[in-house]
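User: If you would, consider this record:
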Amino acid sequence: MMASTSTLPEPAAEEVSPQRHPQYYISDGNTVLRVENTIFKVHRSMLVKDKSAFDAMFSLESFTHDTTQSDNSVVPQEGDSDENPIVLLDKADEFSALMWSLYSLPAEIAVSMGMQANDTQLIHLARIAHKYQFRSTEAWALAALTTFHSNSTGTPNVQNLIEITELAALCEYKALIGAVVIKWKRLLAEGRAVASAIDVAERLNLRQLLGHAYYSMMLKGREVWDSDPQLQRHQRIRLLSGHYNLLKICEELPDFPPRLNHDSTCIRKGRCRSAFAALWKTILTTKDGNAGIAGQVTRIQSVDLVKKVMLAESIVKALAEGSIPAIDLSEHGEIHVKCMPNVVQATQDKVKEVHENLVHWFSDVV
């Protein structure tokens, strides 16, 4: 008979002793805090700056704790020693960034306002400053991040961009939201990180990004939608809906020119409007996916509304500037010469309208 065997429990992993922070364990500090496995010793006066949440926390602590026992000996208080620290449920990197902002010299802070800034450190700082209500520190960090990301031209790291976008939404900082949306749109223009952009835009309700993200994925085609593991069922339904809606709009587009506001000197507005409508239709009439006039030919997908209206804008501007030959529209009328700037403005307004309304054409119902 075989002897029975039993599986012995694995020994528990040995707990690593907390380590003092190499910079922010300050010898004459009077408050000890443990964050993850790092011990900080700092000055309480620094933590209560800016009327932060620490101010309220320490005030409540002094009100509710009696520091002496019946024999007149002092009761140990949290934060008095390494053995009895105040424990914060934060990340050590984030708390270290907060200490950096409180203890750094002006010259060190100034570096963070330029292109040599450490954006990861600023992200940590803004997030923890928001949590503990260091209002001026939060505003400064968000402004520094906005400056950095508004001026940087390099290809952004997608995970880093996700973190910044989440931070901007958390803090409701519109300037930073605008800067990161521009970076997302650069990625989308390159066909990169499209599913990630859809996920971020939906989670954070960034409508100015959501429409562009869905539009970029739609142009990739259904084979890509069906094979992308990041996309969920409701997102594929939205893509189908958007494809249907935009195909219908593109088919009708040549027959619906933008509204034209005539110049005050235009006395034949009807003929001027008819000529503009004919020009618009001529530009947008497609055959086998090709669109364009006067040598301005490009291959455009049948559902690519954005490219169609941008083509119209570029041709109208070229006509207004005289850089391409004029189009004979005499059988329809004539665009008044002083109405041409208004024609350009009308097409530009149409491009803007299309960009702003992309999200509306992607709904959950086909």
